[in-house]
Amino acid sequence: MASNKPAPEAPSRFHPDYGTGYGAEFTGEFGGDLRTDGNNGEPERGWDEWNPTEESVRPVRGRHRVAKQRNGLARSSTVLGVGVMAAVGAGGMATAQGKPPVSISVPDAITDNLPDAKSLPGVGSLFSDGSQADKAEIAAASAPLTTAGITTAEVEQGTTDAGEVLRARILQQAEQQQDAADAEARAAQEKEAAEKAAAEAKKQQDKAEAKVAAEKKKAEEEAKKKAEALRLAKLAASYAIPTSSYTITSTFGQAGSMWSSGHHTGLDFAAPTGTPIKAIHGGTVKSAGWSGSYGYRTVLELDNGTELWFCHQSSIGVSVGQKVTTGETIGRVGATGNVTGPHLHLEVHTADGTGIDPMAWLRGKGLNP
């Protein structure tokens, strides 16, 4: 702690050297005239005035260090406090011996710079006499010590407490952050719901598209079947079975020693002799007459070059170069050539002369022998 020089010791009437030079005769403003009643007739003595100065007061170290001024005094209230304590200490020592109160004199240079006590915050109310001016001072003293951070708008709204303003701002910021968090959570929920709805909609759409595709495919297949049936019907209308009242006895490729090639090369329709033989499709008669083991044979050439052979006829009803139509009679069933009984031996050859299965060819034209 800072230390000051001790104040001069006040003279005491009880000191053994009192009146012999101890404590100079003390008169003047400090302490007034000091009387010593009942002092064996010794003359009355006064007290010397002691004023705290820079020479007699050690500078205070720390926050309230005394700064030197041009006039030798300090403006800080610290000097005043030290002086007052020293004076009071000296006076107290005197009054402790039953002496009258000592008046304290403060230099004018210090008192001129002292603030008015009523202007100090929180102190002016102690000196109020109830006047309007004092009330105003009380209001000023009770006002906050600082208004830092208060905006003009807040002042206009009557806010004067910076702490309350800070608290309100913190609460407002917390509410804004909470609102932002709530908004973000709602946005996330809405996004999740939207994505879920979109996924469900996509699923429903895919399901609907798959159903439509399946129905379309089914419809296409049905349409294809109908078109094929219609085509076969048209072909059937333009193609005809070569005879009637028949029985299929031998098929294409069937093996046997009866045939010189070792296998059957056509399709046999067994029927009574004289049963009419009809043109399967419209075409031109390419040949008509005897043909060795085939007996009486008629060859009908179609527009695409396909040849139809009608063999083992008992009679021929057309001539070479004649144009015939579907279902027109061109001859009759017989047993001429290499046969074991009356029947129509039918062969089908492509334009290059290759023999093919007559049963398959007829079915391809919508016929079912």
Automatic annotation (TrEMBL):
What are the boundaries of the region Disordered? 1-72
Can you tell which superkingdom this protein's organism belongs to?
Bacteria
The record's annotation in InterPro entries points to:
Cell_wall_metabolism_enzyme, Dup_hybrid_motif, M23ase_b-sheet_dom
Give the coiled coil ranges: 171-236
CDD domains listed in its UniProt record = M23_peptidase (cd12797)
| GO molecular-function terms, A-Z | metalloendopeptidase activity
Name the keywords, alphabetized.
Coiled coil, Hydrolase
M23ase beta-sheet core domain: residues covered? 263-358
Biased composition of type Basic and acidic residues is found at 32-48
Q: What is this protein called?
A: Murein DD-endopeptidase MepM and murein hydrolase activator NlpD, contain LysM domain
What does UniProt list as this organism's lineage? Bacteria, Bacillati, Actinomycetota, Actinomycetes, Kitasatosporales
